[in-house]
Amino acid sequence: xxxxxxxxxxxxxxxxxxxxxxxxxxxxxxxxxxxxxxxxxxxxxxxxxxxxxxxxxxxxxxxxxxxxxxxxxxxxxxxxxxxxxxxxxxxxxxxxxxxxxxxxxxxxxxxxxxxxxxxxxxxxxxxxxxxxxxxxxxxxxxxxxxxxxxxxxxxxxxxxxxxxxxxxxxxxxxxxxxxxxxxxxxxxxxxxxxxxxxxxxxxxxxxxxxxxxxxxxxxxxxxxxxxxxxxxxxxxxxxxxxxxxxxxxxxxxxxxxxxxxxxxxxxxxxxxxxxxxxxxxxxxxxxxxxxxxxxxxxxxxxxxxxxxxxxxxxxxxxxxxxxxxxxxxxxxxxxxxxxxxxxxxxxxxxxxxxxxxxxxxxxxxxxxxxxxxxxxxxxxxxxxxxxxxxxxxxxxxxxxxxxxxxxxxxxxxxxxxxxxxxxxxxxxxxx
Length: 431
Fold this sequence. Notes:
7-stranded parallel sheet
C-alpha cells in the first residue's frame, strides 16, 4: 500500500476490479493514455493482478491496491469503532454485512475517506461489475459521483446482486458504451437512461505494429480470444472441416484459453483436424501482434450466448484491422460498426460454418481482394479507434458531465478542455 501523504491531489479516480489484466488490455491502454493526456487520475484496483509474469503489461504509472478482503473489513470495523466514519456507514454495515456482495460496501467505506483526502469527487469504472457496484456504494455512503463504461456481458446479462444493472445505470452521472448498438440496447432496456448513455469506442494504439508479412507455406487462419461460448470457436473449427473437405490448404491457429479448452480439443480430434487446427493457449501482446501481421486471414466467429451475452466490440478485431490483416467476422452487436461488409472486411451470419468457410476461402483464393480489404481495415482502425482520440472523448465527458476540473497540464495538451469547462460553468449559473 502506498503511503497516503505521498500521493498528489488528483482530478478523478479510475476504479478497477483487477488492474492490469491481460484480457482487458484496452482498459490498461486507456488509463495510461489518460495519464499521458495530463488528467492525473488516481489508478485504484480492488484486486491485484494475477496474470502469469510473461503476459503482464509493463506499468509506467502508480496503482493503489486495496487491502485483502479480511484485512479491509477489519480495518473498516476498527474505524467504525473509533467513530472515524460517516454516520451512514455506521448504520448500513451492521444491517448488511452478511448479505451477498457486502464486500462492496466495505470497499466503499474504506475508499471514501481516502478519495476525499485527495480531492477526488468522481470515479470511473470499467464494466458494470464489481468495481461499478463499489462505485455505487461510494455514491450512497460518501456522495462521490461515478460513471462507468459498459462493455458486453456485464450489461447484456442480468445479475442477482443487490445492486442491479438498473441501479448502476440510474444512479451514474453518465454511462459509456463501446458501440451505438449497446447504447440503443441500454436505452431500450432502461428507458430512463435515454440521453444519459454515450458511445465511446474502445481505443487501440494504432502505431507501432510491425510491417505486414504473411508467412510462407500453408496460409494461416488466426483467431484470438478466451475459449468461451460467445467467441464461436466451435463454428470456426466446423468451418475448417469444410475447408479441408474442399481441398483448401491452410493452418488454423487459435490463441487464448478458458473453460472450453477441453471441448474444443475434443472437437478437433473427432474431426481429424489435429494437423490443421492448433490450440496455442494464451500468448503475450507482442506475440499476438507478430501473429496478426503474419496471418493470411483473421477470423472471429462471434455468436450470441444462450443467456443473452455476446461480444460487443471485440478489441482484437480492431487490432487485426490495424495490422492490415483481412478480417472475417459476424453480423453481431457492434461488429458492423467496425466492419462494412465487402469494404474493409467480410461479415457472415453468426453460427453459420458454411458462410464462414466461404468467406475465408474467398480471401485465401483472392489475395488481391484480401490485400484491399486489409488496407481499408487499417485506414478504418487509424481513423476511428486511435487511443488518443477515444480517450479524449471520455476525458471531455468526465470534465463536462462529472464537473471534474482539468489540471493545467491537461488543458495545455488539449486547449478545448477549457471551453468544455467554461461552458459547463456558464450553464451552472442558470440551472
